[in-house]
């Protein structure tokens, strides 16, 4: 059983040559540190420097992806101008500083904590999108539960946004016959949204208001805005 062990040879690249032709059949052996470092350095060089054609292909794919995303965003704003798209993106990533506190008009109100220029998006009216039938049922249920105010905003003939129990600060905006803001319906990715725009320059600590434009009804709701041209009623 005693036979001479063949001498281990090294290849031209410095790595050990396997006599049996398979590394697994020769068992565990220790690799020299110099050989290991040489192999690792060569691997890193190949990994850090991809071929030139691969870099160009990756750059073209990224550029095409960005252009496709821009076209998708622009096409999503049907019926609105490009400025609305830019303003809505700014409103998402940089929200206006607002606060709600007691108002001299009615109960709670929304106030600006920073100067707001004219014709800017102030805040989006957020809530649940419901149908007219559900809105009628919820309005009766809110009355039975003792909820004095229901924060429902009509988007179109079929859709209403209900922010009574789930919404944001926009539901605290009070009505005024001489408002400093107005509401506008815009379409984003095939979905209609209500955004409050500034009608004029708004100073710090100034209350944000808009015209509710309630339909005319026999039972009148008194208006307490206190403006010079106050109509006296909301409807």
UniProtKB/TrEMBL annotation:
Q: Which subcellular locations apply to this protein? A: Nucleus
Q: Where does it sit, as one GO cellular component term?
A: Set1C/COMPASS complex
Taxonomically, the superkingdom here is: Eukaryota
Q: Which UniProt keywords are given for this protein, alphabetically ordered?
A: Chromatin regulator, Methyltransferase, Nucleus, RNA-binding, S-adenosyl-L-methionine, Transcription, Transcription regulation, Transferase
CDD domains per the UniProt record, alphabetical:
SET_SETD1
Q: Name one GO molecular function term.
A: RNA binding
Entry annotated with the keyword Lipid metabolism: no
* A Pfam family matched in the record: SET
- Specify the SET domain's residue ranges: 96-213
SUPFAM superfamilies noted in UniProt:
SET domain
Q: Which GO terms describe its biological process?
A: methylation
| Sequence ranges assigned to domain Post-SET in this UniProt record | 219-235
Transcription found in the keyword field: yes
According to UniProt, the name of this protein is SET1B methyltransferase
From which organism does this entry originate?
A: Ceuthmochares aereus
